[in-house]
Amino acid sequence: MIDPVTLAVINGRLEQIADEMDATLFRSAFNPIIAEAHDASHGLYDAGTGATLIQGKSGLPVFVGAMSFAVKLVIDKAAMDGDLGPGDTYIFNDPYEGGTHLSDFKLVRPFYRNGAIFCFLASVGHWHDVGGNVPGNYNPVATESFQEGMLIPPVKLIEGGTFRQDIVDILQANSRLPGSLYGDLNGQINALDLGEQRLQDLLNEYGDEQVKAALTELQNRAAQLMRSNILELPDGTFVCDDWLDNDGIVDEPLKIALDLTIRNDRMTLDFSRTSLACAGPVNISRSTAVASIYVALKHVFTDVPANAGVLEPIDIVIPKNTLLSVGAPKPVGGYTETILRIIDVVFGAIAQAAPERSNGCAYGTINALSLAGHRRNGKRWVMFSFFGGGHGGHPEGDGLNHGNAPISTATIPPAEILEAAYPMFFRSWALRADSGGPGRHRGGLGALYEIELLEEDADVFLFGERGRFAPQGIAGGNAGALNRFQYEQPDGLHEPPMKSKMVGIKINRGQHLRLETPGGGGYGAARERDPAAVAEDVRLGYVTTGAAKTDYSVVVDNDGQLDTKATEALRVSGGT
Amino acid sequence: MSNQPSYVIGVDVGGTFTDVFFLDEANGQCSVAKVPSTKFDQSEGFLAGIRSGVTDLTKVATVVHGTTVGTNALLERKGAKTGIITNSGFRDTLEMRRRDRPRTWGLWGQFDPVVPRDRRLEVQERTLADGTIHTEVNIDEVKAQSHVLLDMGAQSVAVVFINAYANPTNEMAALAAVREIWPNDHVVASHEILPEIREFERTSTTTLNAYLQPTVGSYLHRLDTALRNDGFGGEVLIVQSNGGVMSLETAGKRPIRTALSGPAAGVIASTHIAKSAGFPNVITCDMGGTSFDVSLVARGQSTLAAQTAVDFGLVIRTPMIEMTTIGAGGGSIAWVDRGGLLQIGPESAGSDPGPVCYGQGNDLPTVTDANLLLGRINAERPIGGKLDRLDVETTKTAIAKHVGEPLDLDPMAAAEAIIRVANSRMAGAIRLVSIERGHNPGDFAVMPFGGGGALHAGALIKDVGLKSALVPRYPGVTSALGCTIADMRHDFVQTLNSLLDDLDLDQLTTQFANLAGQGDALLNDTSVSFVDRKTWFELDMSYLGQTHTVDVPLFLSEDFNINRDQISAAFEARYKSVFGNPLSGIPVRVVNLRVSVIGVRPNFDLHLLAPDDEGTIDAAVRGTRPVWVDGGWTEATIYERLHLPVGAEIKGPAVLEQPDTTIFVEPDLVGKVDEFGNLVISRKGDD
To answer: In angstroms, what separates the C-alpha of A135 from chain B's closest C-alpha?
Structure first.
């Protein structure tokens, strides 16, 4: 057994290795999705099972859970082929076994010590373009993965130290942005090289056995910590259902249903009542579903270290016919929307067991908006960005205004950068009043973005959600506002029939788009909110006087002056 | 008797003490003073410090000040009531940030903007990204909104229009209109502070400047008035975050540049001390009560970072000395998490109530407590002189209870564990700035300044694989010393955002010449004498499509000219050194131009600080004391550090004590006093 002090020291060194791999790729990546939005991740994985041993702190949260599946896929493939050796590196983007979507390319490399595999190192990054029908690969109307991009099974990119240019040729030939792809691929290889070197140094310093013991012990402790967290929750089964608007093809709601059972120090998450696999791209693979459960649990139990031990006391039930466990060639390009909903139902179910450990749902959609046209000189332009919304109210206070999605740590590009690059400008980039879910602690506000086109016509694509089902509050808190998208035509503003999903609508110069994003769900009953806090919200314009009255039973004038008597009367009468 | 003012005085105001460094240029004498800081009004401690060394202020030529007034106002949210005037549709830029959250895991974060929403007002105005004026600014509306802000009690105001970096015409007109009405000078526009693309960063920096102007401005005014009332006829200079100094007047207008003033002065002094001692490559570390700050100096140059966040969402974008901070200071609390892992910080007992051993009410063990229990700190001789003695028994109980029992370790082993984990965290910070930036730690010495670092320096050498440690003779007054030698420096930026192929080179020349001229004028405006002047020109460049830029130094002709091929070659060379191979066939973009104008101030000879010839090693010995190392007690020799002569060689285990710090030389290390009085610690047999 390793002594606790050496354990703490080795833990710090291992985390630093993964962090440094992240930093290396962020700095040298060519595409902004990795460089700015940090849509990438690195870590160390178990030699036999692929289980996550150590994960960088700065990468995309959802990869933390997904990468172990990616590594396991390589372990299985190599066992079948029987030719894994030192100096090999696999590359692939299969989303069904390896998780997430086709845009994410995974590189997996065995790490050898004294002739045996000590562990695996892996790198994943979101490439700018991997073919398919839509530039950037968010195709809201895909019905097969072939329309979303190329699918590469695990193949050796580096074999016995020899780089296989033919593989790179295939990849580049299938991308609209081969240069960017090449730059990102090199960044990922650099990150693996660096991780390998740092890990050799660490093992030389502390010895293989001691580091191995530390890795095992860290898993055990994460599991132990997770069990002690679960033990504090009451036993029982807690039910939470939420809905996706539609799959972009068939306009029918899809249910994400969770029955969460707590028994002593174990937890079962059963998604059996979830809708069946659908036609459009909001399906996900089982590995992606497990990864998102991991993210949800880590958001609730923040003190548990990020390794596979987190999932040790967790049983997961996902029937194969649901939209949470699809195989090829079902489309999975919109996986972000579905996993955000999984995270929402986990928050909702835990809130029923222990509201003081949970929070209202965050805005719950990434709103991938693209605007594409041709400049006066004939050059093609594509603006592509994700937008923000409110976080849920929580036990300590109101939700954060305009935050990023729980699955990512990405920042939004500045309006000025977008305006400098594309023929458009923002009429508005502001907080959206009344969008935060009412509650004792109000949900954070979503945003209002209004974009006007400055040159001829452009095609508009949107991949969003929450147009029909708003982010829920917890512990008696109310829902945040719905997502709302409108586009201008000669006869006025229109909303897409599918609400937050739309392909190829044209707008002309001087016309505009209006995107209003959801706020977070509230925490606790709105009537328990301090009337002074409601008055302050009115004064600051977060809440309108009308909503103060209907949602909070608080009477405030337009200057934020509280009418205490009228408020008391209203709250006592229980109506508005 | 000569009445020529001859003193240059450096003053660094810290949380607990105000350190003063006096240099009399007439005779080359120098001395130091340490007085308690005055929390409510720092200028009182400041003046008391100066008067403790010089009674006749007519003899003082220059006072150089490293201040934390601005930093504290930001951290404690105690700046002025500020308003923002912006174009319609954008009042929330400050609050919406870049759509981030405070922590990766957990969604319970909150953000409180320094200017609340009701004091962020909009006017009709729109400038587009190419500089076109889409909507003229409505001046009547600007005036009306200014009155609204004044009625709300705003003391300062920031004017920020979208795309003002591309064309400031509307912003300038609005600024002039506000100035007509505003009753004081605390009016600032974004093009003055940061004419650089990215609206949140520009808004935040401009707003925080306005937020600090009244606070910092009135503080500096009080200082200046008090000095002048006492006959001071020289000039007060303020240290900026970039390590250079600026005039008091500039500091009043641009207080945002003082955000890292104090720490920057320390790095400047460390750079000079290290260079003089033959160490061009050092990693400075400043261990305070709550944090451990490291900064890398390579080939005698400190690195500058383009921006920093002093707290979540409080973003400042001005060039500043790059500093990496971790929550592992002397007051950082050691605790065992629910998974049974020993952790250090980020909770800290600070200096009040402070560590358990201070006996001021905290019972959670800190790093300092562990050092005390291990015998590395003298319980009878606390640093700083505020306390009479330190309480060892209570400390032992606290360590046993909070760390020993959960980990099943006896108190001594628990204390050693705390130090080991703290050391490994500090080592992690050092790796971050060295190994992770491609530097070989074997080429670097660690240089602790401030009070706490010297206890850990030896362990850090071994943990990271550094060459040695260099402990300056007066670690506690390093920042004050740095004030006296810092150069005057002014940085300028302007966004161009153009493809290199489309760049208007004549205009570039004009812009470079203008900014260099502005910098020169600022240097001319002071009474400070410079031994040299330097002007640096840079472009921020990238390949089209990349978002991270590289800073490309340029060498211009005397009339500020440069051709496209020269720029292209400079970019490729720089890209190669940062990222490896340059890429061919991709257009190159020029994002910003930067100009730095530097007035070089005279350095002083550090031999002045060296010990005199009278001391001997034997005379410096104060006795011996048991010190706990590697699981057992060892008898260590205790020395009076300042009495050690040049050339003295001290083999570990040894503890060197002096009023402002304690140095621990571990058993396998040896320390040598160099010709300046610095202590150089290295491995035994390594020399």
So the answer is: 15
A163-213 pLDDT, tens digit per residue, is 999 999 999 999 988 888 888 998 899 999 999 999 999 999 999 999 999
With the C-alpha atoms ordered B625, B628, B632, B636, is the resulting torsion angle positive or negative?
negative
- Judge whether B411 lies within some domain: no
Using CB atoms, which residue from A11, A228, A298 is nearest to B338? A228
Residue type, A449: Y
pLDDT tens for each residue of A380-432 = 888 888 999 999 999 999 999 999 999 988 889 899 999 998 999 999 999 99
Best CA proximity match to B123, nearest among B98, B82, B70, B160? B160
Chain A residues with CB-CB distance to B130 below 8 A: 420
Structural domain containing residue B627: 617-683
What lies within 8 Å, CB to CB, of B462 at 6+ separation is B666, B668, B683
A35 contacts on B by Cβ (under 8 Å): 546-548
User: Once rounded to an integer, what is the mean pLDDT over residues B246-262?
Assistant: 93
pLDDT score of A576 more than 70: no
Of the three residues B569, B600, B631, the one that is the final residue of a domain is B600
- Rounded distance between C-alpha atoms, residue A258 and residue A322, angstroms: 13
Chain A residues in contact with B591 by the CB 8 A cut-off are none
Residue B636 lies in a domain: yes
Please indicate if any CB of chain A lies within 8 Å of the CB of B305: no
- With CB atoms and an 8 Å threshold, state whether B548 touches A362: no
Could you tell me if B579 and B649 lie in one domain? no
Q: Could you report the per-residue pLDDT of B360-398, keeping only the tens digit for each?
A: 999 999 999 999 999 999 998 887 666 789 999 999 999
Please count the CA atoms within 13 angstroms of the CA of B122 that sit on its side-chain side. 16
pLDDT computed for residue A61 by the predictor? 82
Pairwise CB contact (< 8 Å): A225 & B342: no
pTM as predicted: 0.93
Residues of A in contact with B409 (CB under 8 A): 4
Chain A positions in Cβ-Cβ contact with residue B199 (cut-off 8 Å): 414-416
The model's confidence at residue A575, banded by pLDDT at 50, 70 and 90, is low
Closest CA to A50 of A383, A290, A293, A367: A290
Whether A416 sits inside 8 A of B96 (CB atoms) is: no
Q: How confident is the model at residue B1 (pLDDT cuts 50, 70, 90)?
A: very low
A275 min Cα distance to partner chain B (Å): 28
Mean pLDDT of B205-209: 98
Examine the domain organization and report whether B565 and B509 are in the same domain.
yes
Phi, psi at A143, each rounded to 5°: -115, -10
Q: How many CB pairs under 8 A join A and B?
A: 195
**Range A94-106 burial, b when 16+ CB lie within 10 A, else e:** bbbbbbbbbbbbb
Closest C-alpha among B6, B37, B670, B575 to residue B352: B37
Chain A positions in Cβ-Cβ contact with residue B107 (cut-off 8 Å): 299, 359, 362, 391-392, 394, 399-400, 403, 406
Q: Do B494 and B588 lie in a common domain?
A: yes
Q: What confidence tens digit (pLDDT) does each residue in B424-466 have?
A: 999 988 988 887 777 888 899 999 987 788 999 999 999 888 9
Q: Is residue B623 part of a domain?
A: yes
Overall number of domains in chain B = 2
B428 to A16: CB separation less than 8 angstroms, yes or no: yes
**ipTM, 2 decimals?**
0.94
Instruction: Evaluate whether residue B244 is within a structural domain.
Output: no
User: Residue B545 and residue A180: Cβ atoms within 8 Å?
Assistant: yes
Return the closest-CA partner of residue A229 out of A163, A303, A309, A178: A303
CB pair distance less than 8 Å for B100 and A409: yes
- From B600, B635, B652, the end of a domain falls on B600
Contact flag B109-A391 (C-beta cutoff 8 Å) = yes
